[in-house]
Write a structure and sequence with these properties.
The protein contains twelve helices and nine strands. It has about 325 residues and is α/β, with parallel strands linked by helices. The chain starts with 13 loop residues before the first helix and ends with a helix.
């Protein structure tokens, strides 16, 4: 399966649509041999729900199935069976039973850890998408707390604290995490921008939006736009983006673009944070440029690793 990062704008991407249809077809065939009460779960549910998945997650081509604890084990080549110790919401997608959005997010906590495909920031990216689908963050934490000692609970709860409602893509979430961890204020997500001279005239909807009042009466107005390569790299779309930015600039907005390369290596990430800090008039000395990297392990996991290393050194 292609990841959402690979297929941004996937509804117009024939390869991604074909991969999705192939998965649906495989699940329909699987239903003919699975025990009653099974539902597609974990990575398979994430794909069927069209949640953003990472390259590491997409490297697992197996069909993940959750069964009631009273049912027979699923031992079929190409399948990964899971036992449901706690009830899960099940929805129907394309005629197949799928574990619901919030419970799928919690299930992915089982795939957290060394040598596994899911990390802290993956749960934040997917959590943003889940919250947007559900219209709220709370169903995620409630689904987690309904279970007794679920696997990955510490990582899930740490991720939950950084999930925000309103992100429209994985790229926007990655950009937000980068900038906030670098020391910048939390932005509003996909905020409507109306003209200062006409509150009924919509100029744009900004991916990341800051309005920061200043003591001298000014308001710093900055928009961060995550530019997906598949959609925004064409000459026509770039021309439209420039016209849009010019219109916002006439109303006092500073528009800063973020491309995939801007969140790539550490030097690019630091430069991106510094660029936004200048636009937001945030002092450079207040930035946390050492904290702008991708985080796979939770704070707890890192602390445990440090303690283990200290014990080894003491020996």
């Amino acid at each position: 399966m292609l990841s959402q990062r690979q297929r941004e704008g996937w509804t117009t991407d024939e390869a991604a649509e074909a991969a999705y249809r192939e998965l649906v077809a495989r699940c329909r065939v699987a239903l003919t041999v699975l025990p009653p009460g099974c539902a597609f779960s974990h990575l398979t549910a994430a794909r069927l729900l069209q949640l953003p998945t990472s390259y590491a997650m997409d490297a697992d081509p197996r069909i993940h199935v959750t069964r009631p604890i009273t049912s027979n084990r699923v031992r079929i080549p190409g399948f990964c069976g899971h036992r449901a110790l706690h009830p899960r919401e099940v929805v129907e997608i394309e005629g197949v039973p799928v574990v619901g959005v919030a419970d799928t997010w919690v299930d992915l906590g089982e795939l957290v850890g060394h040598g596994k495909p899911v990390g802290l920031d993956d749960l934040i990216v997917i959590g943003d998408a889940c919250a947007t689908l559900l219209g709220a963050r709370q169903p995620l934490v409630l689904a987690c707390l309904r279970r007794v000692r679920p696997r990955g609970k510490r990582t899930l709860l740490e991720a939950y604290e950084q999930i925000r409602l309103g992100s429209a893509s994985a790229g926007e979430t990655v950009a937000r995490l980068l900038l906030v961890r670098g020391g910048l204020p939390q932005p509003l997500l996909n905020e409507p921008i109306f003209a200062s001279w006409d509150p009924q005239r919509l100029l744009a909807v900004g991916d990341l939006v800051w309005r920061i009042p200043q003591p001298d009466g000014r308001v710093i107005k900055v928009i961060g736009e995550y530019q997906g390569e598949l959609f925004h790299s064409s000459p026509l779309q770039r021309e439209r983006d420039e016209r849009r930015a010019d219109g916002l600039g006439d109303d006092g907005w500073v528009v800063e673009n973020i491309w995939k390369k801007d969140v790539g290596d550490e030097a690019a990430r630091r430069a991106t944070v510094a660029r936004f800090a200048a636009a937001l008039e945030v002092p450079r000395e207040s930035l946390r440029l050492s904290e702008v990297g991708w985080r796979f392990f939770s704070t707890h996991a890192m602390e445990v690793a440090v303690q283990r290393q200290m014990r080894r050194s003491a020996w």
